[in-house]
């Protein structure tokens, strides 16, 4: 495995790259450009980055205004605040205006473990998935983040980029090209499909290896685009297996699991189990400890696969 | 369409003829707003609409640099109706300026109409931003003005707020940000009619002292009689001289102004006009017009 690269650092570098390529790219922050690693952009492009202060519900509206006069704003703060604090602003001023705003939610999921539940973004995808005109991207590694940022800068429309704070080894082939709306099969297997998004891809790959030793085929598919998610992008994998498991650093309601279940319910009579935070507020601790405590450990996944196989 | 010079102060004596024309425009606008509501059997916010008539007339007849035959003109002034429920008044102003034909009023608020219940930039020529959720349009306008400042753009950004809308915290966040970022291509106007939907704000959801609040947020503040064209233009002119900080014009207005039936309505005038009430309102406007023309 290649050396793990921090996703936020990759974002920071890509932001400067697109800032150089596209003069209309501007950056907004809410008092944490350090945590969001946007400071290099401020240095590279003085006059094109603005710290609004602790005013997260003003990020979507100021960004919408900038977008409506031709700028390409990327606004940054912790995912939990980037989405929920100004959700009506995202709905009305960004989505309804189809304003070319890029919402970057940092430290999503349980990334900010020690800070506790006030800082854990576990319902953000659920909140945004129901909004028309929004694209939702959830990268797994540094290579994918960079490609997504380049895509976002050139796509005309509102986008949410969900970044976790993990260092993930490169999981895609060197010739990987991110395509919006497409899922990616990383491992073949004909027993259970595992659909995963974000840095938990590492868990899904470990699950594949664990069951490979038993002769059970776990197919691993990443879902980098949570919206739009064309049904065929799930079905073309799901048809090949007997059941499905979804894994996300998010609540079991409204995120990837729900998206997959919606598609299965309409097209494929097979069982789906959703792994995620089980509709509860969490607690303070290190992120890996929390994931294990709230249903996102390898053993949780193993148990789920066995349940699926027993029933299939 | 005739285009007198834009953005000049109207003096009551020297510009009496122009002011007289604008007063007739205001009568026409009030008449059309009543017709929109009554003929479509719609409960309109008549109070909130009547208080903004002279403001909107000033903007579209004398002030905003816009091209009715080219609504997307990149160098146009931008206008964001933050008090989005005032859409009907803006629609009348856009029609009077030549942005679209009168027949579209027949479909107001109906499926497929170019005139939606609240401003929609995709459907109505001349609308720059979708609004309707109070406290947001103004913040979007601040963002537009920031972009304009970055580009040293040849246009200004305008936004009309309600006073009730100033209950929204998002207004004050944007006010701080615009001040901190020294956004000076922005002229905000505020329809200071001292009532919100449920009634008088005093003693309930009061925002006084309003002038002091905007000054405390480091805005340049001007006041005017929001029903007097000379007063409005003088305040706008002064506001646009301000550099390195944003400016707001507080327009002293009366909810329901211009139509006694609406102004004196005992409860909130978001009403379905009866045929008799409609006739009474029109008769008053006819009389006002007759006196102007005498």
Summed up, what is this model?
Chain A has about 300 residues and is of the alpha/beta class.
In what range is the share of β-strand residues of chain A? Answer: 15-25%
**Beta-strand proportion of chain B:** 5-15%
Unreliable parts of chain B: none
User: H/E order of the elements of chain A?
Assistant: EHEHEHEHHEHEHEEEEHEEHEHEHH
Strand order of the largest sheet of chain A: 3-2-4-5-7-6-12
Q: List the total number of helices of chain A.
A: 12
Uncertain spans of chain A:
none
Total number of strands of chain A = 14
Please characterize this protein's 3D structure.
The complex is a heterodimer of chains A (312) and B (294). The radius of gyration of chain A is 19 Å and the shape is globular. Chain A has helices spanning 7-21, 39-44, 58-68, 79-84, 87-95, 124-129, 142-154, 201-212, 231-238, 256-267, 287-293, 298-311, and strands at residues 5-6, 25-29, 49-51, 72-78, 102-106, 135-137, 159-162, 167-168, 184-187, 192-196, 218-222, 225-227, 243-251, 271-277. Chain A is α/β, with parallel strands linked by helices and 312 residues long. Helix content of chain A is 38%, strand content 21%. The longest helix of chain A is centred in the first third of the chain and has 15 residues, at 7-21. In chain A, strand 2, helix 2 (39-44) and strand 3 (49-51) form a beta-alpha-beta unit. In chain A, helix 1 packs parallel to helix 7, helix 3 (58-68) runs parallel beside helix 5 (87-95) and helix 9 (231-238) crosses helix 10. Chain B is of the alpha/beta class. Helices cover 40% and strands 13% of the residues of chain B. Chain B is built from ten helices and nine strands. The longest helix of chain B is centred in the first third of the chain and has 24 residues, at 16-39. The model of chain B has no long low-confidence stretch (mean pLDDT 96). The A-B interface holds A 26, 47-48, 50, 52-53, 55, 57-58, 61-71, 88-89, 91-93, 96-98 and B 78, 121-122, 128-133, 136-137, 139-148, 150-151, 153, 169-170, 173-174, 176-177, 180-181.
């Amino acid at each position: 495995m290649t050396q793990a690269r921090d996703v936020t650092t990759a974002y920071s570098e890509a932001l400067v790259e697109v800032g150089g390529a596209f003069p209309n790219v501007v950056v907004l922050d809410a008092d944490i450009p350090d945590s969001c690693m946007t400071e290099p952009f401020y240095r590279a492009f003085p006059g094109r980055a603005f710290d609004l202060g602790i005013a997260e519900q003003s990020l979507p509206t100021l960004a919408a205004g900038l977008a409506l006069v031709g700028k390409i704003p990327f606004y940054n703060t912790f995912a939990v605040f980037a989405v929920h604090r100004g959700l009506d602003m995202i709905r009305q001023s960004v989505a309804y205006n189809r304003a070319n705003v890029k919402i970057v939610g940092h430290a999503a999921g349980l990334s900010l473990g020690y800070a506790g539940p006030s800082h854990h973004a576990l319902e953000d995808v659920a909140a945004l998935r129901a909004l028309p005109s929004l694209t939702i991207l959830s990268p797994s590694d540094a290579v994918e983040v960079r490609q997504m940022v380049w895509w976002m800068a050139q796509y005309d429309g509102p986008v949410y980029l969900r970044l976790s704070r993990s260092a993930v080894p490169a999981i895609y082939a060197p010739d990987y090209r991110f395509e919006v709306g497409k899922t990616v099969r990383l491992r073949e297997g004909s027993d259970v499909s595992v659909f995963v998004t974000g840095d938990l891809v590492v868990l899904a790959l470990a699950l594949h290896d664990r069951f490979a030793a038993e002769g059970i085929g776990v197919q691993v598919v990443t879902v980098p685009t949570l919206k739009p998610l064309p049904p065929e992008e799930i079905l073309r994998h799901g048809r090949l297996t007997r059941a499905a498991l979804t894994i996300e650093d998010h609540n079991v309601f409204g995120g990837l699991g729900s998206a997959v279940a919606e598609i299965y319910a309409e097209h494929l009579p097979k069982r789906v189990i959703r792994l995620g935070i089980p509709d509860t507020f969490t607690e303070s601790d290190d992120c890996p400890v929390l994931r294990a405590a709230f249903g996102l450990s390898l053993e949780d996944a193993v148990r789920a696969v066995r349940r699926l196989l027993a029933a299939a | 369409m005739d285009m007198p010079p834009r953005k000049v102060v109207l003096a009551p004596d020297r510009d009496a003829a122009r002011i007289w024309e604008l007063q007739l425009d205001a009568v026409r606008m009030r008449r059309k707003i009543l017709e929109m509501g009554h003929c479509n059997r719609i409960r309109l916010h008549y109070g909130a609409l009547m208080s903004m008539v002279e403001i909107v007339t000033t903007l579209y007849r004398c002030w905003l640099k816009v091209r009715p035959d080219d609504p997307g003109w990149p160098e146009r002034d931008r206008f964001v109706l933050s008090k989005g429920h005032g859409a009907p008044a803006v629609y009348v102003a856009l029609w009077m300026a030549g942005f679209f034909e009168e027949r579209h009023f027949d479909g107001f608020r109906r499926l497929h109409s170019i005139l939606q219940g609240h401003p929609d930039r995709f459907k109505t020529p001349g609308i720059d931003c979708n609004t309707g959720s109070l406290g947001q349009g103004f913040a979007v306008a601040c963002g537009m003005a920031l972009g304009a400042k970055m580009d040293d753009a040849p246009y200004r950004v305008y936004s009309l707020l309600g006073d009730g809308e100033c209950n929204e915290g998002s207004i004050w966040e944007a006010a701080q940000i615009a001040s901190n970022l020294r956004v000076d291509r922005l002229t905000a106007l505020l329809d200071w009619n001292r009532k919100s939907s449920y009634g008088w704000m005093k003693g309930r959801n009061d925002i006084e002292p309003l002038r002091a609040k905007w000054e405390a947020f480091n805005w340049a503040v001007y006041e005017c009689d929001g029903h007097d064209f000379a007063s409005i233009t003088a305040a706008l002119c002064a506001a646009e001289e301000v550099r390195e900080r944003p400016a707001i014009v507080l327009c002293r207005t009366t909810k329901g102004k211009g139509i006694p039936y609406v102004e004196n309505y005992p409860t909130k005038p978001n009403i379905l006009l009866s045929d008799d009430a409609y006739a009474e309102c029109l008769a008053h406007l006819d009389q006002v017009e007759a006196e102007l023309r005498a």
